[in-house]
Specification:
The protein has 211 residues and is mostly helical. It is built from twelve helices and no strands. The longest helix is centred in the N-terminal third of the chain and has 18 residues. The radius of gyration is 17 Å and the shape is globular. It has two domains: 88 residues, Helix-hairpin-Helix base-excision DNA repair enzymes (C-terminal) (Endonuclease Iii, domain 2, Orthogonal Bundle), CATH 1.10.1670; 107 residues, Endonuclease III, domain 1 (Orthogonal Bundle), CATH 1.10.340.
């Protein structure tokens, strides 16, 4: 019953003016897919910044620094920029961004993989500060459709509608993939990609459609 109610809510949103906003966001992700390494690296840094923070703050910093700032600013200047923007974990995030620069050709690396799941596994294993959630976020934002972004908002909504039991203290790879499969089934029932479903669920929890 709880899942049926959730499906009804999603379908109602698909019939509302929110659909236009969701479709526009998906078009923006597809447009980024056609851009190069610098824009993809900027998006990777955005996802590093949003971990344990907010997408809104990540967008603000990304707009201020741009790809060039992420790629070239010395560590201390990067810390200073993140501090002035109000990022709580500025030292750690600046360090992770500097470390990520060895993957400046991130689009070339990611598109070498046969699918987004194998690309995600590589990102989670090799990029400091990128786990399965952040890797999924990055891949969705550069145009991939078949990965789920399991942040606290989505997990809370899944528990509320009985798609998950309890609250896992840690979201292991095994638990992440199991929860993702639940969302994949929901996406099929609502005729959406996982990328689209995430935006609708995010809107239900937050009232906004961000990237």
């Amino acid at each position: 019953m709880a899942e049926e109610n959730l499906i009804k809510k999603i379908l109602a949103l698909k019939s509302s003016n929110i659909r236009e906003t969701v479709d526009e966001r998906i078009r923006e992700f597809k447009a980024l897919d056609r851009k190069g390494d610098e824009d993809w690296f900027s998006e990777l840094c955005f996802c590093i910044l949003t971990a344990a923070s907010t997408a809104k703050l990540g967008i603000k910093i990304q707009n201020e620094l741009g790809a060039d700032g992420f790629l070239t600013l010395p560590y201390q200047k990067l810390v200073s920029k993140l501090k002035s923007a109000g990022h709580r974990y500025r030292d750690q995030r600046a360090e992770r961004i500097v470390k990520a620069r060895k993957f400046y050709n991130i689009k070339e690396i990611v598109t070498h993989f046969p699918d987004e799941r194998s690309a995600r596994a590589w990102l989670a294993e090799n990029v400091d500060g990128i786990g399965y959630k952040e890797a999924s976020h990055f891949l969705r934002n550069v145009g991939y459709n078949d990965v789920a972004i399991l942040d606290r908002h989505i997990l809370a909504l899944m528990r509320q509608h009985e798609l998950l039991e309890g609250t896992p203290k840690t979201l292991t790879k095994k638990k992440y993939l199991a929860a993702e499969e639940k969302l994949r089934e929901l996406a099929q029932k609502t005729n959406l990609s996982l990328a689209e479903l995430d935006l609708y669920l995010w809107y239900m929890e937050t009232g906004v459609v961000l990237k």
